[in-house]
Amino acid sequence: MRVIFFTWVLLNTIASNNLMAQSGQDEDKKNYKLNRFDAVQNKRKEIVYNFRNVNFIANYQNPSLISKIKALEGKKDYVNLLPALEEYVGNFGIQNFYKNTDYLWHLGQLYELLKQDEKAKAMYRLVLKHTREGHDLIKKRYDTLSVNDKDYFVPLKYYYELVEYRKSVDTLRPPQSVLLNMGSEVNSKFEDYGPAMHPTDNLLLFTSQRNVNGGTGKKDEDIYFTRNYDGFWDTAEPFKAINTRYNEGSACLSRDGKTIYFSRCMAPGGFGSCDLYLANLKEDSTWNTPENLGPYINSRGWDSQPSLSHTEDTLFFSSDRLGGFGLTDIYMSIKDKKTRQWGRALNLGPTINSRGSEVSPFYHPVFNVLYFSSNGHLLQFGDFDIYKVYKEKSTWQEPISIGPLVNGPSSEYYFSISPDSKNLFYAKSDADDRKNLDLYSFPLNMEAQPEATTRLRGSLVDSLTGNPFKGIVSVVDMTKGIEVAPKYLRPDGSFDFDLIDKSKYLLIIQGEDFFRVEKEISLNGDTLMHMRTPSIDFKKLKFNSLEFDQASSEILPSMYRDLDRLVNYMLDNPGLSLVIEGHTNKEGNGKDNLILSQKRANAIKEYIVEFGGIEEYRIKAIGYGDTKPLMEEKSDYEKRINRRVEFDFYKKGEEMPEGGQ
Q1: In whole angstroms, what is the distance from residue 329 CA to residue 361 CA?
Q2: Phi/psi class of residue 54: alpha, beta or left (left: φ > 0; alpha: ψ in -120 to 50)?
Q3: Range of the domain at 126
């Protein structure tokens, strides 16, 4: 990145009330017009910009406008600098995003100065995707603005530990399934990737390098297919009508299954290293000779991984052609309605494409959602992760990670989704052997669901102080059982999830400082819920419901609710231990009172262990009889106060009292 126009030292010195007043007046007047610079805000409150020139201007230059920008900067006229800078940045071509990234950074700083934080974050996201230098400083500014609206996913290992630990709890369900290797009928000891599901949901195409020349050891990349019979995939077979001595792969089928698009590499008559082809199924059920899609789509570089929109008038693909944003970009071609010919390839722009690589575009066969893999976006769990992106008002929105239930520490790409959105098929490398890809299937999680667009937003704070809690938020889909990745509460106590509308969910919030909060929700449109709950006093916790009958140690139904809260709390916090203290008043014999208090403490321990599934070693029951009264007994009121059960929680490493059982 070149020298930044002005630093944060300068920005902080000019943040005066006068400037704020001027910016407000300018915002009201709206006396300037953006030049091809459209801001679109989505339901997530994220702003993205539509750079309309990226497919028409390689490198935008406007010396007179640059002079104006520098003059306004020299005068510290930041209010009038804003529209000038917006006009210049709004006309960026692809090359500007790596040659003039400092203008994006400059504009982001200006937005932040003028309290337009959402626009500032949009600029910072673009800078982080496209800059080669100054990454740490920009990331720090972006993280500062985004601290209370980004996702803090619970680590996958910890998530499954919680699931395993809670199997006995009715309200928390383990996942329906886990990541499944598709087995030896489909996979081989060589690379297998590029799955493409046929719309009938029972035929899967994929690419494999299992065809090895016995003499030279050279691998031949070919297309294979497998059929699903009664839930089982049959032995994979080569697609002989398409495969040649050249490399073929990355196939996709039309809705009727009569047209196949695929990539062929280093073939005679090609335009680059790999080109896109199509072949049609003839009436006699044989395939015609594949046709090259021509120079409007293919380039001198690598063009591969085609995917059709469900309307079949748009073809998405990956290419490393010159003139892109990064190493590999995603492009699209639109079919002319009259001529039925594919149009010139168009880059999908800087919101989707980055300085890294974007590959494996997949357009959902039913819904208007584009999926792709990238190693250049902000939220990453490994090398290549899978993202989904929606289009609103002709503008691609900010891509959304499909989360840690699929994205792992290695690479996830070359994938397909079943038309009913139940399963994801994708190629995954092992952390120990990143080059050897196998095909896997996984039930499509909520973060990847195309219809998960309804926002559940909420917060949890202390009912007494109003301070936010720290904890974990889980959502259980009670309608379809779709897995939802849990998240940590944000620093301000907030959380949000994108879910499928008109479904029932169980919201669970757990933490060390409060009893588990559970809410059943019938989602009907975007929902906002602010919740308050008391914090736990770790010493001498009491429940009014825990009153035993006279001279009895029997657990009563009225006690179940609060005892279950204790069970849930100990399940949620496996590092805590519990001491149950039984106390009586001074009525009767002191020795008998001591025995009775011990029996009552033991009864509560037995309930927590047997019905709650809590390990016995974590709980100690101690009966103190009438030896520790809270007040002198002058009436029935004082006697009732002294007749009690108290609970003390101990953190790991804290010494529990001696005695008891």
Answers
A1: 10
A2: alpha
A3: 8-146
